[in-house]
Each structure stands twice: as structure tokens, then as C-alpha cells.
Amino acid sequence: MSNVKQRRGVLFVCLGNICRSPIAETVFQSLIEQRNLTDKWFCDSAATSSYHTGDLPDYRAIQVLKEHGLQTEHRARKLTKEDFNKFEWIFGMDESNISNIKRMSPSNSQAKIELLGSYDPEGQSIIEDPYYQGGIDGFIANYNQCLRCCQAFLDKMN
Ligand code: 4NP
Q: Which fold does the domain 8-157 belong to in CATH?
């Protein structure tokens, strides 16, 4: 008999996997480390497109994370069919992500597909695409939303 408990997986998904979802993944990872929950949870991030497959996160995402003492070496990858078995939750950032994730979902998938923003205590349910905004403000807003939502999610689940 093994008493190894299964860790619960959370996958963060956006369009390119270079802005919002790597921020969310890095924030979630830092929270589970701070809360000593790495034996209970694991996370990753992925894209609904292959536009940036293999790329590091956008320099503005890296900058915002760095300002909060966080780092990532994530490489963008596209969502796969296996992800729907591996992860208990798949979080999209906006409604377009959610419809793309659902379209890519195998018919027998048990994964819970939700807006990450549905956990926001401040009620901002959409985490907007910051890519074409030019500056860093959208990324700062994304970071703060991801932090609030990941904290609230973990508060609820643990
Ligand atoms: P993300 O942002 O979905 O938050 O990673 C985007 C990154 C790239 C593109 C769109 C959104 N793009 O069209 O290349």
C-alpha cells in the first residue's frame, strides 16, 4: 500500500502563454511555497494558440514579476488533450479563452474550466489581454488580479 497522496493540479491558460498565464502560474507557485502546500498542489500554464510556442514570457511580464521578487523560466506551450486529465482545474483569463479551452476539451474531460477572475474578491472577473497595450500598466493590473484570485482560491480550497 502506498500512502502517497495525489497532488491537485491547476493549469492557467491564456491566448499566447507569454503574458497573463505565466504571471498567474508564477504567483500561484510562490503562494503554495509560502503556504507550505507544494505537497498538495502543482501548477503550470499553457496557451490556446501556438503563436509563441517555445518563447519566454513577454519582457513586461518578467519585469512585473521581478518587481515582486519573482522569476520564471517558463516556455510557452499549447494546451494538450493530456492537460485535461492531468489538471483538476483549468483557468482561463477571459471569455474567449474559456470558449477555446472548451472547444479543445475531450468529451470525457473531468477538468473544471473556470474564469480565474471568478475568485476575485473585488469582482473583476475578466483578466484583460495586455499584449497590445504598449505599456506595463496592464501587466501590473494582471499581476494584482492574479494575486487576489490565487489567494482567494487557495483560501477556499485549503
Ligand atoms: P497572453 O497575451 O494571452 O496574456 O499571453 C497575448 C500574447 C500574444 C498575443 C496575444 C495575447 N499575440 O497575439 O501574439
A: Rossmann fold (3.40.50)
